[in-house]
Write a structure and sequence with these properties.
Helices cover about 85% and strands about 0% of the residues. The protein is mostly helical. Helix 1 runs antiparallel to helix 5 and helix 3 runs antiparallel to helix 5.
Amino acid sequence: MAERTKRKGSFVKQAAILATAGILVRFLGFVYRVPLTNMIGDQGNGIYSAGYYIYTFLLILSSAGLPAAISKMVSERIAIKEYRNAHRVFQSALIVSGSLGLLFAILLGVFARQIATFANAPESYYCIVTLSPTIFIVAIMSAFRGYFQGMNTMIPTAISQIVEQIVNAFFSVYLAYIFLSFGVSAGEKNIPMGAAGGTAGTGIGAAAGLLVVIFSYFLIRPTIKKKVKRCHQTTEESRLDTAKQLFATAWPIIAGTAVFSITNLIDMNMVTRILENTGFSHNEALDLYGQLSGKYVTLTTLPVSISTALATAALPSIAASVKLRDLKQVRRKMNLTFRISMIISVPAAVGIGVLGEPIIHLLFPKAMAGGALLTVGAISILFLALCQTATGILQGIGHIKVPVIGAILGAIVKVILNYLLIGIPELNVLGAVLSTTGCYLVAAVFDVIMLSRISGIKFDMMGTLLKPVAGATAMGVTALAVYHVIIMAYPSNALATIVAILFAMGIYGMVMLLIGGITEEDLMSLPMGKKIVGSLRRLRLV
């Protein structure tokens, strides 16, 4: 009983650590994307995103699926005290990810110009070149992060993510500022080089993150060696067998993630080409694509990062419970993960939707277009969060191929809707937003239905979805009312937006506590959860 309680607390604690890191990382991402966007504009964002999405796709193929696969395999072996085999997984993963990362880094650097031309964004050549070494750096780092997560310690991963983003933020803005004046006369801007400065910061940040995880590994290496030496396991896995199992575990995860990444590449290519075919110039098409990728995608994926963090933290914990055949714990962790994911994602979708224009004007005063994209597409936050959370759980319980099918179905829907909607002059880039929403909706519905059938669990629709919707509805009405009242009294968009967001958050929290939408277990999963629960108990709110 005590051991079970300990595992519960460990899961909640590790999820909270990674979720906190996810929040900080995303916040730091906003900190640098705001001045970067104000410097390079929507066109620069389009160039930046073109290079970044190509880099992301190759990164996924080389290493993005490995942390989840490594953490799953390591946690399964540690659960039955096979510490030597667990460490062998890490050693094999390091070789595999390093080799793949080096291969794709070379390919990206050598064929950068051809890739940029194929993507219909030749201006992104310099972005691609500066990003190519980053693939190798991140590939090595992914093996370390997966190993730490498999040992159920998210602290090294969390710290490395935060350090990586801080360094990334500083150098992205600094180098963009320096490169903007490269090769042009005074008063002019070299937008492609400015965007390349932004992507160069990504590699420097990744190098800093790698140093953190290597340092963390050497700190705990003596403890690992002792456990490996004292380990008395019945079977010894060869590195070749471990590598084969790693590929078998990782490829469906990579495939599922790669499908969505491919849709980003297709989206980029289709948006610019279709817009150009309907009367927009190349630069105008890049501007619109920059609004889509640099504002809509950046803002709507912020709350989803928390859901992704929860799913990542849940995977090794759920995998260990499956290995121990503790079905009660598997069900509890699944429901807790879904409930917290929706408590975060539903109000985020409503808030970003009702305050889309004011948020854009607040964050990007020098590039204020694109608010309509948030208003129309904020609902995609809910579907993406459902999809990401279900994917993490499915991977944790061993059904790693199911999300691949869901992702493929979503990608097919997206391509079809792109063809049908982007070419409509009245919609133009809004067509891509609607197709993205359709893509995530189809994938989410498929994954959740399949998860329910596989696990046999009936999800608590009232607590997981309906109560957050009720609280978010009250929050949305409050946000709009407060914003317009302040604008009429004192016409400051910044003041009205910030106050409206703060009021909305307070209303959402109060309504959710009153209707029982937030439980003590949910609160305890948050950073400083004990203190929050203690304060609410004194106020007799829980």
